[in-house]
Amino acid sequence: MQIKSAYLSKEPQTEEQITAALKKYPYPKGVSLPKGSDVTVVEDLFSPKQLAQLAYLKHLILQHSTDNVRKSLLLAFYNTVAICNLTFHATPKGGGNHFGYYYRYRIAKEPTILNTMAVFERKFERIVAAKKETSYKINPDTIGNLQVVHGTATNLSFIKKESVDYIYTDPPYGKKIPYLDLSVMWNAWLDLAVSQQDYEQEAIEGGEHHKTKDEYNSLMAQSIREMYRVLKFDRWMSFVFAHKDPEFWHLIIETAEQCGFEYAGAVAQKNGQTSFKKRQNPFTVLSGQLIINFRKVRKPRYILKASLGMDISDIVTQTIEGIIAKNNGASLEQINDELIIKGLELGFLDLLKKQYSDLTPLLLDMFDYDDKTELFAIRKNTQFKSHLDLDLRVRYYLISYLRRMELQRKTATFDEIVLHIIPLLKNGTTPEAQTILNILQDIAERVGDDSWQLKKQSSAQLSMYL
Ligand SMILES: C[S@@+](CC[C@H](N)C(=O)[O-])C[C@H]1O[C@@H](n2cnc3c(N)ncnc32)[C@H](O)[C@@H]1O
User: Fold this and answer.
1) C-alpha angle with apex 350: 361 to 328, nearest 5 degrees?
2) DSSP string, 32-66
3) Rounded distance from Cα 180 to ligand 1 centre (Å)
4) Which domains can be identified in the chain, with CATH numbers?
5) What is the mean pLDDT of the chain?
6) The pTM is what?
7) Is the pLDDT of residue 324 over 80?
8) Which ligand 1 atom is the nearest neighbour of the CA of 183?
9) Which residue out of 149, 175, 202 has the highest number of ligand 1 atoms within 8 Å of its CB and is therefore the one to mutate?
10) Residue 145 pLDDT more than 60?
11) CA 172 to ligand 1 centroid distance, Å
């Protein structure tokens, strides 16, 4: 690699070389960091040696004449800057953390100083690997179709109404991560301008500009309205749903529905990180996320509270028991995913948020937890403790199953229904087929020969219990 040999031949190492490089090559000077940072300006996040080496490396990269190669090199540089600074420290388990982990510019007590070129080379190799992996779809023939726009999702006026085939969006959740504040260091190195307007338009609660929750809510709502406007009818919008932030579930679903989106199902997406850092607060340590799908249809059906005849704690217990029974044990993520999806589909998400932001005491009280498999399981030699009578439990599983079918615009045969219900109840008393049929006749109606769908009023009726 040309850059590597050019760099190594003149890498600033001695004090003299460092001073000379800092005079010659540009680096960020006097760019303020957000309040709450350990130092006030970007350059103080680096040792003079790091600063000189990064400045020299950037100088070499900018000389590269091929546009897309230069940009790829800059991407590797961006990743290098992330860890070649004084906020980075190695962790006992391997790897390390930088300021991003703490959500603020925190100087490490004992910074780990990495070799700049070794990091850069590794990061560049990763980019090359990613390019290879995606080259089937992203290549010189297709790249011209891509347009990257710097702007705000609250104003998509450059896109015509009903012209978009699909939207995938991963919005910010409240005050969790101050993205713009945290990108100051990178923006300074990459010469990317951040305007006052960028700050005004950022959907965030708090941050350097002290936005309120109402401001966050209204920016999110406005962007959902814009997405609705530009999407074609009968097309989908997928929304990344960070389930560790129950506070915002309701806002998203309600706004999407108000705009005219119809909920179309949810899938869990894992990001491969280990999940169980601590048991105390599951919602803050969960690593996976849900993708919630909405469809823009002309006559949307809204998620209505199902009449389940149980109170919220029973519904929660029932949902957890069901998933544990069906899978012979369930991880915290699986339990959360199931609860949130059921909460969505049966209309109790808002209650779930209020009462079950921390599930751990309930889970540890009711189930065994296996440290090795990280699964919650039924206590040995016991049956589910649920005090609910069997009819109610069957009724709950029937309604949630038929709701799901309804969403998918399907019906189910009696055999399919029984096959679905039995595994959910297998650690308790198993119901007779006749019991299931009786309850089914109460809440559902037969269509055709042997297909069942929820009766209109049982899916629409507002529950007295919720
Ligand atoms: C959860 S992150 C998305 C992360 C992204 N999927 C990724 O993997 O890098 C949310 C992003 O929304 C951005 N954001 C905040 N307000 C916005 C707005 N009004 N319009 C567009 N994006 C915004 C934040 O800066 C942040 O980068």
Assistant:
1) 45
2) BPPTT-SSSBGGGGS-HHHHHHHHHHHHHHHT---
3) 9
4) 2-145 (no CATH), 153-302 (3.40.50.150)
5) 85
6) 0.78
7) yes
8) 25
9) 202
10) yes
11) 5
Tokens of 364: 């540890």
Query: At 207, is the pLDDT very low, low, confident or very high (cuts 50, 70, 90)?
Result: confident
For residue 435, pLDDT over 60 is answered with yes
Half-sphere exposure of 294 (CA within 13 A, CB side): 31
44-62 per-position pLDDT tens digit: 999 999 999 999 999 999 9
Amino acid code (one letter) for 110: E
- Token readout for 447 is 């269509």
- What whole-number distance in Å separates Cα of residue 238 and Cα of residue 372? 34
Q: Is the pLDDT of residue 283 over 60?
A: no
Taking the C-alpha atoms of residue 355 and residue 357, their distance in angstroms, rounded to an integer, is 6
**Distance from residue 338's CA to the centre of ligand 1 (Å):** 26
Dist. CA 335–CA 332, nearest whole Å: 5
- How far away, in angstroms, is 238 Cα from ligand 1 center? 15
Q: Which DSSP string corresponds to 185-231?
A: HHHHHTT----HHHHHH---SBTTTTB-HHHHHHHHHHHHHHHHHHE
Q: Which two tokens stand for residue 342?
A: 């059921």
Q: Strand pairing partners for 237?
A: 167, 294
Pocket of ligand 1 (CB under 6 A): 152-154, 170-172, 179-180, 201-203, 219
Q: Which atom of ligand 1 is nearest to the CA of 154?
A: 19
Phi and psi dihedrals of 375, rounded to 5? -115, 145
> Where residue 228 falls among pLDDT bands split at 50, 70, 90?
very high
